[in-house]
């Protein structure tokens, strides 16, 4: 009999509320014969204040025992900027080798976009998750003096670039339009740019049915607001991916519906799924948060574990729910979760 | 009597056409007593193909003799990506210490924006121009092998950050709203992020009447499409500035109207002014290019040289011209230039 052994990290702010709804929908969508086990972990600001810990060795050992991780949100204004980001989120991405950071953008009917007209948006960004300027390499000399010099080193390896580029080609090939865009800044960042471009072109030769294009990251931001329909699959480096996926989320309905997966495709370590929105402390505890992004992250999680039909049922339920919102009064976090749970069970 | 000794670099593609109109408007707006001398330089793809040169020592010596530089566009598909960018444009920014890369974004009446509603956009980005990931530091080992490693080093100095932050504060203080946003990614790029944030906060203490905020670059892309009216002055690093100013141009009417200045505020070396659009080889030589961004760059040039009233006349003429376009047939490059020349002379 099948089973899912899930690590659940509600985290900070609205994390607790949205994760509860994500689990509600997950339970509702799973077939009877799939045994769902969950274990909750207390990472985040509260634990940090109480113990000074963000993620210990014992924690990572415990997390390794799970099939996947569902994360709400980590981050609180009471913790200095960067501490939880680097001490928990990025640490886990690196330790668990989450090199495929998957971020789909789809503008669903009934969802508001800041763009004029009725753009048709349906693409997915494959963001590298373990290299680039995110490695923490670099340093500071003469800190705090008028002669301070601070460096940040972007580290890019053929190994790291090839595996994510390959993953993106495979995803592009599996989609109807079969298009893949590489986004970089190879006219300026020539060392990393050459590596990325060269490997991209090499792997492209193995996927002759995939149409490719190259685009500078600055130009990509223009296309994302003027011709978002142009994109199908995008592959890009860690920092460019961070920037353009927030923009992509904004134009395709906002971070309220943006889901993401921190994926280790080999399965050596558990992958982690999380809504793109943060902990939103300003609305925490009020039942106001929209759990949709978390529910869509659950769909990514299910697809990663091979439950494609169940993932599709969630996507479908969310699409119908969003389409029916127009003109209706706002619902609470739990009401939206309940409605989605009913739909996916149905 | 006053004089302007201008270096003119038409460059590639539509550069020639738009620069001709920029000069037409410049001549028309200048008072009789100001002597305008211009000298044309042949930098760009043609010269590169003929001689292999992008910018020689003799060239930079010659350029140094001018009060300012007007550039059309550099870049052609026949030249490998990066060669002219690094060999000419970036080289000049570094040699002439163009540390204030100034990029205003203003959505003028009658101008189309990809954003829904009628956003009110009027901000200016002060992008650092001589540091960050643009320094060309970094390298490659085992090039072309499966074990290649490529690095890019972002170099940030207290000297370089403080002067551009100070410039941005002064600009913010001179504007009615007096708001300044620092855009960085200090939760991840902690070395450079700390330097930027620390200096920003220190300088802020000297400008108590300027309201400040800090924003991560990823979040900034969201605000640029959902709340662009939020911004007044932005200061940011070289690469983040590159990315967000293209997005800013896109939402405020497109790169057809986006002007920029590569400024050396001390005047030690001439500053360079250029439209943000590139050489657009696909429409070159057809009289189709819109010279407005070049004309607005001439206004930035005049303001830099202290001709504030003349700069204001150009801005005003462009605003009226743009407002009157709706519903009219498209005009040629020269027709738009003629119309603007008449208006500024008037
Ligand atoms: C919180 C931060 C470290 C993180 C990132 O930069 O990757 C976030 O912006 C994201 O996109 O997941
Ligand atoms: C052409 C390129 C080198 C340049 C840059 O990256 O600065 C351009 O994009 C710009 O913004 O002026």
Automatic annotation (TrEMBL), chains A, B:
GO molecular-function term, one example from the UniProt record: 3-isopropylmalate dehydrogenase activity
Keyword annotations: Amino-acid biosynthesis, Branched-chain amino acid biosynthesis, Cytoplasm, Leucine biosynthesis, Magnesium, Manganese, Metal-binding, NAD, Oxidoreductase
Domain of life: Bacteria
Start and end residues of each Isopropylmalate dehydrogenase-like domain: 5-340
Organism for this UniProt entry: Streptomyces cinnabarinus
Co-factor(s): Mn(2+); Mg(2+)
Function: Catalyzes the oxidation of 3-carboxy-2-hydroxy-4-methylpentanoate (3-isopropylmalate) to 3-carboxy-4-methyl-2-oxopentanoate. The product decarboxylates to 4-methyl-2 oxopentanoate.
Reactions this protein catalyses: (2R,3S)-3-isopropylmalate + NAD(+) = 4-methyl-2-oxopentanoate + CO2 + NADH
Binding site for substrate: 93, 103, 127, 218
Pathway: Amino-acid biosynthesis; L-leucine biosynthesis; L-leucine from 3-methyl-2-oxobutanoate: step 3/4
Keyword hit for Lyase: no
E.C. number: 1.1.1.85
Cofactor note: Binds 1 Mg(2+) or Mn(2+) ion per subunit.
Complexes and interactors: Homodimer.
Enzyme class of the recorded protein, top EC level: oxidoreductase
Site (Important for catalysis): 134, 185
Residues reported in the UniProt entry to bind NAD(+): 278-290
Localization terms from the record: Cytoplasm
Record protein name field: 3-isopropylmalate dehydrogenase
Family: Belongs to the isocitrate and isopropylmalate dehydrogenases family. LeuB type 2 subfamily.
Gene transcribed to yield this protein: leuB
InterPro entries attached to this UniProt entry: ICDH/IPMDH, IsoCit/isopropylmalate_DH_CS, IsoPropMal-DH-like_dom, LeuB_actb
Residues that, per the record, bind Mg(2+): 218, 242, 246
């Amino acid at each position: 009999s099948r089973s899912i052994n899930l690590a659940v990290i509600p985290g900070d702010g609205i994390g607790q509320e949205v994760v509860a709804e994500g689990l509600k929908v997950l339970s509702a969508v799973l077939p009877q014969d799939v045994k769902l086990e969950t274990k909750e972990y207390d990472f985040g600001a509260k634990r940090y204040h109480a113990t000074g810990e963000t993620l210990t060795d014992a924690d990572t050992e415990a997390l390794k025992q799970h099939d996947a991780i569902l994360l709400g949100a980590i981050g609180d204004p009471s913790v200095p900027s960067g501490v939880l980001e680097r001490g928990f989120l990025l640490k886990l991405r690196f330790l668990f080798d989450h090199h495929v950071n998957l971020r789909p953008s789809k503008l669903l009917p009934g969802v508001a976009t800041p763009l004029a007209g009725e753009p048709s948006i349906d693409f997915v960004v494959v963001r590298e998750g373990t290299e680039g300027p995110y490695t923490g390499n670099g340093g500071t000399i003469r800190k705090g003096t008028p002669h301070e010099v601070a460096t940040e080193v972007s580290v890019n390896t053929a190994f790291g670039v090839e595996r994510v580029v390959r993953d993106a080609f495979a995803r592009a090939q599996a989609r109807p339009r079969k298009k893949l865009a590489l986004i970089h800044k190879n006219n300026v960042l020539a060392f990393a740019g050459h590596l990325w471009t060269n490997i991209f072109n090499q792997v492209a030769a193995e996927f002759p049915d995939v149409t490719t294009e190259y685009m500078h990251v600055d130009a990509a931001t223009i296309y994302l607001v003027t011709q978002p329909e142009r994109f199908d699959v995008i592959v890009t480096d860690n920092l460019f991916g961070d920037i353009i996926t927030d923009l992509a989320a904004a134009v395709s309905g906002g971070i309220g519906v943006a889901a993401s997966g921190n994926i280790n495709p080999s399965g050596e370590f558990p992958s982690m799924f999380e809504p793109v929105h943060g902990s939103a402390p300003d609305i925490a505890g009020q039942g106001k948060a929209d759990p949709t992004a978390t529910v869509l992250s659950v769909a990514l999680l299910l697809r990663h574990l091979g439950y494609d039909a169940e993932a599709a049922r969630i996507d479908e339920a969310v699409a119908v729910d969003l389409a029916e919102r127009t003109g209706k009064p706002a619902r609470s976090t739990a009401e939206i979760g309940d409605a989605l749970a009913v739909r996916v069970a149905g």
